């Protein structure tokens, strides 16, 4: 079966089953095109909490699907490939957060949503790359335990007077680690008029070269509103596919053409179709963990307008 035929079958079946397909900006182009909602972590979390469908097919990684599940206790959330697990999320087990809390009893715990629900249940509030600074600055506490991404922690530190303690010390995304300041400097030489848009999971040396540091959805918005015609994009390549499709008159230069998240790319149209037919694998979060992780997520919605 070709991509077009399969896409049509998926859309028809989703309609018959009252199912919504949510996809992250890093998904394959053909999945982006069949999604009912396409966005970054914050947008997907917000959207999933508003859906009136009974079934959610989540084309993203584990922690994102967990967010959809814990925000929708009565609904079924399925993930097309269970192996789509974010390596950064697994760098922060709940016990590491518990230990840090004991060592810093006066600190607030702010966890990036790229964390498994079990660890997020230990947080005062969660954040995304789109609202991390806003969330931290909204808290009364002066000391913040922040994890798991040490580069996002660095970005927050540049925009707050609070003490930021990264947990773990060197948490990182292997995809954004691949971007190098030297490569971007060479691209800036080749495209001197281009705006440089950098995701805050990138190393500090790369962030320092940015005109704008932003989440994937903020990159899309900036490219729509900017007077510039060319953009150097330092994030996963899936977002470049979306930018090329939605803004065909602008030029998008990937900071690295093989900046690919292998875990995001595990989902395929075929797996989405099978997940819709079989309504599995189901993503489940134990209710005690879900209740606490949901409270941390809802607090993020309260303090964030981003
Ligand atoms: S791009 Fe990085 S943070 Fe995002 S899912 Fe892949 S490994 Fe995790």
Features:
single chain, 306 residues, Rossmann fold, four-stranded parallel sheet, 42% helix, 16% strand, globular, binds iron/sulfur cluster, transferase, metal-binding, NadA_sf, pyridine nucleotide biosynthesis
Offer a quick outline of the entry:
The protein is an alpha/beta fold. It has 14 helices and 12 strands.
**Small molecules bound in the structure, each named once:** iron/sulfur cluster
The succession of helices and strands, N to C, reads HEHEHEHEHEHEHEHEHEHEHEHEHH
Radius of gyration: 19 Å
Query: CATH homologous superfamily of the largest domain, by name?
Result: NadA-like
What CATH first level of the largest domain would be assigned? Alpha Beta
> Which stretches are low in confidence, meaning pLDDT under 50 for 5 or more residues running?
none
Q: Please indicate the percent range of residues in DSSP E strands (runs of 2 or more).
A: 15-25%
Query: How many strands, what sense, and barrel or not for the largest sheet?
Result: 4 strands, parallel
Mean pLDDT: 95
CATH architecture of the largest domain: 3-Layer(aba) Sandwich
Counting DSSP H or I runs of 4 or more residues, the number of helices is 14
Describe the protein in words:
Helix 1 packs parallel to helix 13 (about 270-280), helix 3 (about 40-50) packs parallel to helix 4 (about 60-70) and helix 4 (about 60-70) packs across helix 14. This protein has a four-stranded parallel sheet, sandwiched between helices. The protein has a four-stranded parallel sheet with strand order 6-5-7-8, sandwiched between helices. Strands 10-9-11-12 form a four-stranded parallel sheet, with helices on both faces. It starts with a helix and ends with a helix. By secondary structure, the chain is α/β, with parallel strands linked by helices. It folds into three domains: about 5-85 and about 265-285, 3-Layer(aba) Sandwich (Rossmann fold), CATH 3.40.50.10800; about 90-170 and about 290-305, 3-Layer(aba) Sandwich (Rossmann fold), CATH 3.40.50.10800; about 175-255, NadA-like (Rossmann fold), CATH 3.40.50. It contains 14 helices and twelve strands.
């Amino acid at each position: 079966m070709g991509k077009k035929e399969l896409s049509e079958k998926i859309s028809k079946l989703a309609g018959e089953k009252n199912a919504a397909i949510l996809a992250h900006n890093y998904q394959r182009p053909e999945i982006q095109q069949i999604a009912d909602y396409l966005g970054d972590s914050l947008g997907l979390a917000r959207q999933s909490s508003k859906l009136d469908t009974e079934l959610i097919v989540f084309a993203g990684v584990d922690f994102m699907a967990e967010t959809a599940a814990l925000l929708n206790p009565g609904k079924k959330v399925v993930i097309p490939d269970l192996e789509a697990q974010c390596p950064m999320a697994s760098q922060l087990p709940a016990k590491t957060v518990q230990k840090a809390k004991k060592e810093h009893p006066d600190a607030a715990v702010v966890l990036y949503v790229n964390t498994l629900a079990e660890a997020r249940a230990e947080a005062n509030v969660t954040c995304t790359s789109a609202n991390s600074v806003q969330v931290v600055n909204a808290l009364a506490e002066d000391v913040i335990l922040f994890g798991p991404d040490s580069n996002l922690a660095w970005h927050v530190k540049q925009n707050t007077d609070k003490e930021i303690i990264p947990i773990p010390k060197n948490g990182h995304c292997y995809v954004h680690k691949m971007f190098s300041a030297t490569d971007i400097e060479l691209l800036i030489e080749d495209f001197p008029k281009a705006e440089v848009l950098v995701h805050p999971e990138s190393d500090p040396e790369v962030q320092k070269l940015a005109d704008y540091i932003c989440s994937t959805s903020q990159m899309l918005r900036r490219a729509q509103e900017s007077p510039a015609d060319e953009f150097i994009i330092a994030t996963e390549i899936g977002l470049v596919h979306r930018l090329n499709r939605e803004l065909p008159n602008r030029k998008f230069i990937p900071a690295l053409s093989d900046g690919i998240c292998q875990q995001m790319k595990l989902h395929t149209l075929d797996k989405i179709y099978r997940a819709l037919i079989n309504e599995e694998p189901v993503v489940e979060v134990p209710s005690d963990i879900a209740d606490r992780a949901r409270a941390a997520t809802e607090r993020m919605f309260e303090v964030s307008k981003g």
